[in-house]
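Subject: sequence -> structure tokens, single chain

Hey, anyone have a minute? Need the predicted structure for the following. Not urgent.
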Amino acid sequence: MKQKLISVVIPAFNEQDNLPVLVSELTSVLKKIGLYEILIVNDGSTDKTESVIEELHRSDKCVHLISFTRNFGHQYALKAGLDRACGDCVISMDADLQHPVSLIPTMIREWQDGNDIVYTVRRETNNESWFKKMSSRLFYRFFNFLTDLRLPRGAADFRLLDRKVVDQIKSLPERMLFLRGMISWIGFTQKGIAYTPARRLNGSSSYTLRKMVALAATGAVSFSLKPLRVAIYLGLFVAFMGCLFTAYVLYMRLFNGSVISGWASLMSVTLILGGAQLFMMGIIGEYIGMIFMETKHRPQYIISKTTLTSKDNHEK
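Reply:
Had a minute. Here:
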């Protein structure tokens, strides 16, 4: 029987110190399992990440470089690796060593038992700040409230995908990517495994609050019309409150013979209505902006250098 090929995809942004350690741990585990390839996507790093990957490739021809012309973002780096991975299954993981390499044999066993997608769920630890924990909880509650999907809290980009799942993801035409939502939406047989993240070995996370909010907004707009419905309900509520206020003003004028001295109340109503309108316009603008970006049909990413060749059968 033909031996299975396992692909590992690693997005990397300024990870020059972590990659040699990670690749060493990976190869020691993967060599015991069988055939493997490691695709490291350099997402526009400004340090020596690219040269480090090239050196790793010279030492082990199963390690490959895919280098972007600039920083396109974590989701697009993952997608570039999925587009070019040849494995019967593809494992994606981060380069910061917080995703435990020791869990890979378990993930592969679950895949061999018939699970098409084996995803991991991060356990909370005392090493994480209160803000990190709260922002993570809010992210998943926000996403699950606004969409019909149920993304497990703590779901990570450390996952295993069967070849048929990878082919389906490659066929999806979206250019605004939220892979966690896409993988939840796509179906197939899925199995979750909990893990405890290790401390980051070197450097600091480049995933800022601004990027988390942008990712949450992309996910919500990509997978649901509920934000538009929320805008409709908010508009109706504000209109209803406006009618109540109008009835109150008429009552005071007709039955009390007095008129409210209006500046404060007028400003309050104006601010409420103006804020509600701007909020609703912002939601509509997000959808229009996404339509605008999709209709451009620009490539999701641009590759400047790669060690992959057509002989490796890695071309799209």
